[in-house]
């Protein structure tokens, strides 16, 4: 069972803060450090000191860490041209010694596009599909050969398809709640399917759709990793759970219903219920990045019980 730390820096975090969390992630034995890819805060957070770029952040962390995996949930396809993204991710993978994973999604937050002059096309899913074809196609093209692609939204001509990632197969993550197109896209391109902030019922139905689509695509049932991303709020006692919930502006009962919250034993039990549905990896959304004691408790009280 992999536990990964998942951060939301657009809510307010400097690179130094992210570095401290990533180093704690590594020292405490978690599997990976992931971050969102957003340029604008959400809700009541002040967002200070301002947005940071996901792939610039991960490039820095690639040189400052040695073991943990690094990646995005999810890079927005609207932010980057596919050829540029393929170069960026491959380079960061080289910088990390082969520890990078690419989560790629369509992009959805219109306000952040408006705030920074980024086009927000009406048809995003088709662009995502073409981006996946181009990025993976560039990486898979043998050295010395060229890659071409002609789509509705992007055209690639006579590309040397360089550089290559350090990994022979850099993992690609696809996620979401879409009932039809998302499972089909995951079946074609995903090494991992992630369901963000879904209930047990949502998880059961969406995992089943992806498994069915994967079988129709000729893939074995174990070829795709299934994971959940869930907010986490753990405390040694009720008072500590309540304090951590208040620090992120949430209610304990709501967190217990929609995330992983409570004592270590409660959280282990909750994780077990998702695991029964096929999840083998969990992205623990940490919203208070100043509370490294929270990570220490999760490592000692939750991770230690999962093996």
Low-confidence stretches: none
The helix/strand class is: alpha/beta
Into which percent range does the helicity of residues fall? 40-55%
Tell me the strand order in the biggest sheet: 1-2-3-5-8-9-10-12
Mean pLDDT: 97
Main sheet properties: 8 strands, parallel, barrel
User: What's the N-to-C terminus distance?
Assistant: 7 Å
Q: Count of helical segments? A: 11
SSE ordering: EHEHEEHEHHEEEHEHEHHEHEH
Number of strands: 12
Shape: globular
The radius of gyration is 19 Å
| Beta-strand content | 15-25%
Keywords for this structure?
307 residues; alpha/beta; eight-stranded parallel barrel; two-stranded antiparallel sheet; 11 helices; 12 strands
Description:
- The protein is α/β, with parallel strands linked by helices.
- It contains 11 helices and 12 strands.
- An 8-stranded parallel β-barrel has the order 1-2-3-5-8-9-10-12, surrounded by 10 helices. It has a two-stranded antiparallel sheet with strand order 6-7.
- A hairpin with a 4-residue loop joins strand 6 and strand 7.
- Helix 2 packs parallel to helix 3, helix 3 crosses helix 5 and helix 6 (181-189) packs across helix 7.
- It is globular and about 60 Å long.
- The mean pLDDT is 97.
Task: Please give the structural blueprint.
Elements: E1 2-7, H1 15-27, E2 32-35, H2 54-64, E3 69-72, E4 75-76, H3 82-96, E5 100-105, H4 110-115, H5 125-140, E6 147-150, E7 155-159, E8 172-175, H6 181-189, E9 192-196, H7 200-216, E10 225-234, H8 238-247, H9 252-258, E11 260-262, H10 264-275, E12 281-286, H11 292-306
Parallel strand pairs: 1-2, 1-12, 2-3, 3-5, 4-5, 5-8, 8-9, 9-10, 10-11, 10-12
Antiparallel strand pairs: 6-7
Helix pairs in contact: 2-3, 3-5, 6-7, 10-11
């Amino acid at each position: 069972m992999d536990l990964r730390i998942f951060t939301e820096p657009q809510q307010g975090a400097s690179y130094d803060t992210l570095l401290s969390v990533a180093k704690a992630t590594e020292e405490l034995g978690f599997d990976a450090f992931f971050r969102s890819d957003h340029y604008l805060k959400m809700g009541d957070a002040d967002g200070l000191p301002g947005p940071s770029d996901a792939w610039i952040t991960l490039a820095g962390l690639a040189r400052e860490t040695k073991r943990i995996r690094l990646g995005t949930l999810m890079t927005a396809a609207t932010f980057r041209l596919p050829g540029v993204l393929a170069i960026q991710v491959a380079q960061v993978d080289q910088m990390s010694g082969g520890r990078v994973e690419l989560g790629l999604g369509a992009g959805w937050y219109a306000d952040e596009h408006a705030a920074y002059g980024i086009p927000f096309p009406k048809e995003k899913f088709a662009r995502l599909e073409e981006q996946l074809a181009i990025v993976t196609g560039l990486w898979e093209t043998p050295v010395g050969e060229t890659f071409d692609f002609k789509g509705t939204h992007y055209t690639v001509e006579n590309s040397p398809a360089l550089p290559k990632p350090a990994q022979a197969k850099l993992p690609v993550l696809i996620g979401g709640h879409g009932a039809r197109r998302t499972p089909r896209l995951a079946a074609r391109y995903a090494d991992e399917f992630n369901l963000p902030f879904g209930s047990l019922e949502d998880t059961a139905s969406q995992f089943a759709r992806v498994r069915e689509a994967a079988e129709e695509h000729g893939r074995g049932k174990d070829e795709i990793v299934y994971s959940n991303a869930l907010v986490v709020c753990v405390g040694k006692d009720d008072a500590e759970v309540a304090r951590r919930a208040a620090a992120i502006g949430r209610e304990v009962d709501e967190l217990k219903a929609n995330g992983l919250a409570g004592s270590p034993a409660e959280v282990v039990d909750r994780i077990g219920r998702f695991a029964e549905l096929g999840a083998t990896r969990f992205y623990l959304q940490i919203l208070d990045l100043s509370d490294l004691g929270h990570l220490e408790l999760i490592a000692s009280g939750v991770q230690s019980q999962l093996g």
